[in-house]
Amino acid sequence: MTDHFNPYEMAKSQLLDAVKALSLDDRVYEILKNPMRVMEVSIPVRMNDCSVKTFIGYRSQHTDVMGPTKGGVRFHPGVTLDEVKALSMWMTFKTQVLGLPYGGAKGGVIVDPKSLTERELEELSREYIRSLMAIIGPDKDIPAPDVNTNSKLMGLMLDEYDRVRGFNVPGFITGKPLILGGSLGRLEATGRGVAITILEAVKRLGLNIEGLKVSIQGFGNVGKYTAKILVEMGAKIVAVSDSKGAIYKDTGLPIDQLLKFVEEGNRVSDFSEADRIEAMQVFEVDCDVVVPAALENQITGEVAKKIKAKVIAEAANGPTTREGDQVLYEKGIVVIPDILCNAGGVTVSYFEWVQNKMGYYWKEEEVNNKLQEKMVSSFDNVYKMYELHDVHMRTAAYMVSVGRIAEALSARGWIKEWCMPFKCKE
Ligand SMILES: NC(=O)C1=CN([C@@H]2O[C@H](COP(=O)(O)OP(=O)(O)OC[C@H]3O[C@@H](n4cnc5c(N)ncnc54)[C@H](OP(=O)(O)O)[C@@H]3O)[C@@H](O)[C@H]2O)C=CC1
Ligand SMILES: O=C(O)CCC(=O)C(=O)O
Predict the structure, then answer these.
(1) In three state form, how does the secondary structure of 343-378 look?
(2) CATH number of 187-341: 3.40.50.720, 3.40.640.10, 3.40.50.360, 2.40.170.20?
(3) What is residue 25's predicted lDDT score, i.e. its pLDDT?
(4) For ligand 2, what atom is nearest to the CA of residue 71?
(5) Phi then psi dihedrals of residue 246, to 5 deg
(6) Which residues make up the binding site for substrate (predicted)?
(7) Count of CB atoms within 10 A of residue 407's CB?
(8) Phi/psi at 232 (5° precision)
(9) Taking the domains of the chain in order of start, what are their residue ranges?
(10) Which of the residues 61, 148, 191, 404 could staple to 69 if both were Cys, CB 3.0 to 4.6 A apart?
C-alpha cells in the first residue's frame, strides 16, 4: 500500500499523474521515478565537551538531463532519506516549470542545529561539504539554503569548498553572503516569488490584493518575506505561526514590528499585539489565502476540510498530502503548487550563478525585474495548461515541467518522437 505521508511516494505519484495526463511513454516515468545518485555520509563533529558525535547526511541528485543539479541543504532532526529524495525530484520539476538550465538536487543532515554551538555548527557544515566533494561543484551540483540553513552557513560551505579545491569558486553555492558573490534580492526571492504568484492568482479569480486576508504557517526566511512583500502590495496578514505557536489579528498584524520582534530572537507566539491561537489554527482562520511556509504534510484531508480560504499558496515544499489535495480540489480551492509558488528562490539562485560565471553583478532592481518576468510567465504557462486540460493546478504545473524534460529525453535519444504527442512551449 502507498504511504501517503511518505514524500517520495507522493513525488512519484505526482510525476505519474503528469505522465498520464500528457499521454507520455512509460519510459519517461521509468527514467524519472528514481534519483540518479544518492550519497549518504557520516559526519563526525568534535563537540565542545571534547566528545565526538556523528551526524548522518544525504545528498540526492535527481537528474542532470537539463543541466547541473541544484537545490538546498536542510538541517533538521526529521530529515529522512526518502524526504531528501522527494525534495530532489521536486527541485527538478520546479526548475523545469521555470525553464531554468538545471536538474534537481537536495541535501539534508539529521540534526537539530539549535542544539549545537556556533563552532559545532560550523564544523558540521564544513565536514558535510568535505564529504560530498566528489559529487558537487559549479557545473555538477550547486547547493543553496533550505530549512535551518542560511547565507552565513553558505559562506562557510563555500570557504570549505574553495580550500579543498585551492582556488575561489563562487558559483559552487548560491544564497551566500553578498561580499562572497551572493546576489542582491536572493534573501527575499522565495517570498517575493510567492507573493507574485498570489497576485497572479487573485487577479484571475477577480479578487483584489488590497485588503486581501492572508494566513501564514512558518515565519522563517520564506514566511517572513512573503508577509513583508504581500503587505507592501496591500494585503493584510491576519495570522502567523512558528513551530511553537501562532497569533491572530483580524485587522492585520503589524508586520514590520513582528519582523523586528522575531529578528531579536523572540517567538511569534510571544508577540503581544495580537491574540494567541493554536499553531494549526492558521489553517482554519477566516481569510482569503493560506500560505504553508514550513514543512511537508501539513494540509492533510482533515486539515483541508477546515480551510475557508479560496487560495492555497504552497510556499513550502510538499505541504499538502494526496488526500489534502483531493479535498481542496473538491472544494474548488485554487492551489498554487509548490513547484511554481516557491520557485523564486531557485530562480534568483540561477541569477546568482550566472552573475558568478560572468563576474559581473546586477543591481537589485534588475534582479527583481527579471524574477518578476520569470514568475509571471511561468504562472501564465501553468494557468493556460490548467484551463486547457481542466486538471488540478498541480498536474498542470507538472505537465509543463515533465513535457520539457520529456522533450529533452527525446532529443538525447532516450525516447522516440512518436512518444511525444505534446510539445511544451515557452
Ligand atoms: N529558503 C528558500 O529559499 C526556500 C525554501 N523553501 C521551502 O520553504 C519552507 C520553509 O523554508 P525556510 O523558510 O527557508 O526555512 P526556515 O528554517 O528559515 O524557517 C522555517 C519556519 O517554519 C517554522 N516551522 C517549522 N515547523 C513548523 C510547524 N510544525 N508549524 C509551524 N511552523 C513551523 C519554523 O519555526 P521555528 O523557528 O519555531 O523552528 C520557521 O519559522 C521549506 O519547505 C523549504 O523547503 C522553498 C524554496 C526556497
Ligand atoms: O536556491 C536554490 O538553489 C534551491 C532552493 C531550494 O532548496 C528550493 O527551492 O526548495
Answers:
(1) CHHHHHHHHHHHHHHHCCCCCHHHHHHHHHHHHHHH
(2) 3.40.50.720
(3) 81
(4) 4
(5) -140, 160
(6) 70, 94, 349
(7) 16
(8) -60, -30
(9) 34-172, 187-341
(10) 61
Task: Give yes or no on whether 34-172 and 187-341 have one common fold.
Answer: yes
Q: What is the number of other CB atoms lying within 10 angstroms of the CB of residue 106?
A: 30
Under DSSP, the state recorded for 241 is: E
Residue whose Cα lies nearest atom 4 of ligand 2: it is 71
CA distance 343 to 397: 12
Is 176 annotated as contributing to ligand binding? no
At residue 2, the pLDDT reads 55
Compute, in angstroms, the gap from residue 293 CA to the centroid of ligand 1.
Answer: 6
Altogether, the residues listed in the chain come to a count of: 426
Q: What is the pLDDT of residue 423?
A: 45
Residue at 407: amino acid letter: E
What is the structure's pLDDT at 422?
47
CATH architecture assigned to 34-172: 3-Layer(aba) Sandwich (3.40)
How far is ligand 2, taken at its centre, from the CA of residue 42, in Å? Answer: 23
Cα–ligand 2 centroid distance for 72 (angstroms): 5
Amino acid symbol at 13: S
**Which H/E stretch holds residue 320?**
none
Rg of the Cα atoms in the chain: 21
Task: Name the residue of 190, 192, 277, 297 whose CB sits within 8 Å of the most ligand 1 atoms, as the mutation to test its pocket.
Answer: 190
Whether residue 56 contacts residue 42, with contact meaning beta carbons closer than 8 Å, is answered with yes
Is residue 299 in contact with ligand 2, taking CB distance under 6 Å?
Answer: no
Cβ–ligand 1 contact at 295 (below 6 Å) = yes
Helix, coil or strand: residue 109: strand
Cα separation, 199 vs 192, whole angstroms: 11
- State residue 184's pLDDT score: 98
pLDDT averaged over consecutive 10-residue blocks of the chain (426 residues)? 81 93 90 98 98 98 98 98 98 98 98 98 98 98 98 98 98 98 98 98 97 98 98 98 97 98 97 97 98 98 98 98 96 97 98 98 98 98 95 95 94 73 44
> From the CA of 316, which ligand is nearest?
1
Query: Which ligand has an atom closest to residue 296 CA?
Result: 1
* Ligand 2 midpoint to CA 71 (Å): 4
The reported pTM is: 0.96
Atom index in ligand 1 nearest the CA of residue 149 equals 17
> Does residue 346 line the site of ligand 2, with CB under 6 A?
yes
**Which residue of 62, 190, 221, 347 sits with most ligand 2 atoms within 8 Å of its CB, as the best mutation to test the pocket?**
190
For atom 6 of ligand 1, the residue with the nearest CA is 316
